[in-house]
Structure formats: structure tokens, C-alpha cells
Amino acid sequence: MQYPTRFSALPEYAFPRLRTLLDPHRPGGRPLHMSIGEPKHPFPAFAATEVQKHAAGFNRYPPNEGTPELRQAIARWLERRFDLDHVDENTRVMPLNGTREGLFNAALALSPEQKNGQQPLILLPNPFYQCYMVAARAAGAVPTYLNATQATGFLPDFAALPAETLDRTSIAYVCSPSNPQGAVATRDYYKTLLKLAEKHDFFIFADECYSEIYRDTPPAGILSVAQETGVDPERVLAFHSLSKRSNLPGFRSGFVAAGPKVIRELRQLRGYTGAPLPLPIQMASAKVWADEAHVRENRALYRAKFDLADRILGNVPGYVPPQAGFFLWIPVNDGEAAALELWKTSGVRVLPGAYLSQETGSGNPGRGYIRVALVAEPDEIERGLRAIGDFSIRSVNS
Ligand SMILES: Cc1ncc(COP(=O)(O)O)c(C=O)c1O
Q1: What is the pTM of this model?
Q2: Radius of gyration (C-alpha) of the chain in whole angstroms
Q3: Where are the domains of the chain?
Q4: Residue nearest to ligand 1 atom 5, measured at CA
Q5: SS3 helix, strand, coil % of the chain, rounded to 5?
Q6: Cβ atoms of residues 309 and 374 within 8 Å
Q7: Ligand 1: which atom is nearest the Cα of residue 129?
Q8: Among 346, 353, 356, CA closest to 382
Q9: How many other C-beta atoms lie within 10 A of the C-beta of residue 307?
Q10: How far from each other are the two terminal CA atoms of the chain, in whole angstroms?
Q11: Residue among 173, 149, 172 nearest 318 (CA)
């Protein structure tokens, strides 16, 4: 066997890396996990009832393109949530095993071997959800990191790229609301990106899996901006999930919406390699997309956590209240040192920002940050935030 392979040089994944950093040390208090973004609020009880009701479906291979019920529920949700004209459930949506699977496989399906005679570039925000980088490599493209810092509103500045870079680009990933910073793309931001995609002929993969967790104003959806500006729907893929919206990360249930040709390409690849959602999960997912009451309740729980964070961390220098999502992106001197210190002094486990970012010519935008997930119970979160606040104030004064 010949090594290294295309993936041998991948950095160790964030969570084993965190265990290597922290586990040799004793926690300075009751361990509190604020590192992993696993939703913990209750999921709607009817989801389990629906799975039970359709349990006989475990006996069958599920349809690759999704059941009509699920595709219809998704299409109607898109129309309601993003004010879209008719979304054809037969040609414009495809259920996924969570957005992660789609964010990866769509790059394989759609990135060409060459773009304008060169190896294509795939643009990624930096820091970023790590799946994008591996997708870019798997597709044989060059992952190209765009620093998303406070100076760029915590979103990548695509318009600042030279024309040659954009001409070589096959796909641009964008994440809004963003993980880890909780920044939200405005309609104007999306308009600029859509214009660039048309001019330089690349796809946009919009990861909007946090779109339902916000304070007051629902984040813009790229599909609605594309509709308003008359952009070719084949350019834009929007990814959504029940994982965060409905606290069902274990359902592995999401979808992608795009133009009919793109959906055909994705179905084709999936027909050969995919593992579609089990039928009972598809049937239950249809019911979950159709219900908003539990989503409103979920949002209210997060809103209270945001308020708590603002109250406790408001005085921490450089603290920027997140607009949406469920992470805090907190500036510190050195993210790794801060995560270690917090663990050793209080048992609070947070993720060093650099575990989600890459070195670039203009530095590593995650190095001076920690990412804190607001998924635990409120009183636990309060304990964690107080420890983080004390630590931040101490480090500023030292
Ligand atoms: C930014 C982002 N995108 C995608 C995902 C994948 O979520 P799922 O596959 O559960 O939909 C996550 C999960 O944490 C995420 O943070």
C-alpha cells in the first residue's frame, strides 16, 4: 500500500485533539462540556411516536430520492420560511442524512476535474465546519481559506478576492448563521456572493443548518435572495437540518434544495453510493418539518441562554454577542492555553478556536479564540460562563 493518501495529512479531528490536550490533567471542578455543539433541548415527542407508527418500514430499503411525504413537507417549509414561490418537491429538494453528508457528497458530485484549465479551488470560510475541507480534498480541489474575522464581520470577504482566484473557483462554501461565530449573512452579503458566482461561474454551497436558532430576526435564506435577484437556481445549493432546528441530531435528517439539474446530479451519485434515511425516519421527519411550535419553544430556550451570556460576559473585552446559532466565539490570548487553564481551574471544557481553523498567509484567525457551546442546562451554563468571565478578566489584568 502506498502512503500517504489524500487524507493522511489531515490534522487530527478537533475532539480527539481536545482529549489529548485536556485528559492528562485533573479538572478543577465538576466537568462541564461546553465544547461539543450537540443539541440537548427536548425534541418533539411526536417524532418518536411517528417512528413507532411506521416501524414496519424498517423492513424495506428506503427510496433514495425521499418519500413524497417528506419531499412535500420540505418544499412547503421552504416556501413558508423563506417566502419562496412554488418549490417543486419532485425536482428541487433531496433529503439527506443530515447536512454533513450532503455538504461532503455535493462537492464530489459537482466539482469538475478542472476549471479553466487548472485544478479547481474550493473556497472555505476560516474558521469553518471541518467537513468542508475534507470534501474539497476528496473532490480533488484545493481548499482555499478565507479568514472570517471581526474585520470582515466574521464572514468571508469573497469580493476581496482577485478575479483569477474566482475564475478558478468551482465551489464557495458559506455558513450562515456561522459556526463558530454566530454571524448572519445579510441579504446584501448574499447578493454580492450570488453576483460573483454568476460572473465567475461557480456553485455556492450555503450551509444554513443554524437558520432557526436566532434572537429576534429570522436570518435571510440564500434561496430567497436568489429568487429576488433572478439568479440561476442551478448555482445555489441550500442545506438545512433537523439536528439543530428540532434537536434531532440522532435522526440524521436534513435536505438540500437546488436547481433540477443539480438535484439530478446529486441523486445520481447517491443512487450508487448513498444510504438513504430509513423509511420510519423519513415519515417522522415529514411531520417534524410541518410543525413550528416546537421550533419556537426551542428558540426561546436559546434566547434565554444568549441573554445569560450577554449579562455575564458583557464586560469581557472583545466579547461580541452572537446573532444566531448556539456558540460563543470568545477572544482570549491563546485558545489552547485558555482551554487548558479553564479545565484545570474549573472543569469547564471549551474548544480552542484554532482546532476549527487553518494557518494562512495572514495568520490563523482561530488562534486567539475559544468556542463555547450553549447546549447544557441553564444553571450549568451559568456556572461555565462565570468561570469563563473570571478567566477572561484575570487574563486581561495579568
Ligand atoms: C456548520 C455546521 N454544518 C453542518 C453540520 C452538520 O449537521 P447535521 O449533519 O447534523 O445536519 C454542523 C453540525 O454540527 C455544523 O455545525
Answers
A1: 0.97
A2: 21
A3: 14-42+294-397, 46-291
A4: 100
A5: 45, 15, 40
A6: yes
A7: 1
A8: 346
A9: 12
A10: 53
A11: 149
pLDDT tens string, the chain, 398 residues long: the values are 788 888 888 888 999 999 999 999 999 999 999 999 899 899 999 999 999 999 999 999 999 999 999 999 999 999 999 999 999 999 999 999 999 999 999 999 999 999 999 999 999 999 999 999 999 999 999 999 999 999 999 999 999 999 999 999 999 999 999 999 999 999 999 999 999 999 999 999 999 999 999 999 999 999 999 999 999 999 999 999 999 999 999 999 999 999 999 999 999 999 999 999 999 999 999 999 999 999 999 999 999 999 999 999 999 988 999 999 999 999 999 999 999 999 999 999 999 999 999 999 999 999 999 999 999 999 999 999 999 999 987 776 66
Residue 375 Cα to ligand 1 middle (Å): 14
Cβ atoms of 237 and 175 within 8 Å: the answer is no
Q: What whole-number distance in Å separates Cα of residue 271 and Cα of residue 66?
A: 12
Q: How many C-beta atoms surround the C-beta of residue 195 within 10 A?
A: 14
Which ligand 1 atom is at minimum distance from the Cα of 103?
Answer: 4
**Three state DSSP letters for 249-276:** HHHCCEEEECCHHHHHHHHHHHHHHCCC
> Which atom of ligand 1 is nearest to 38's Cα?
14
209 lines ligand 1 (CB under 6 A): yes
Task: Compute the distance from residue 394 Cα to the ligand 1 centre, in Å.
Answer: 34
Specify the CATH architecture of the domain 14-42+294-397.
Alpha-Beta Complex (3.90)
Fold of 46-291: Aspartate Aminotransferase; domain 2 (3.40.640)
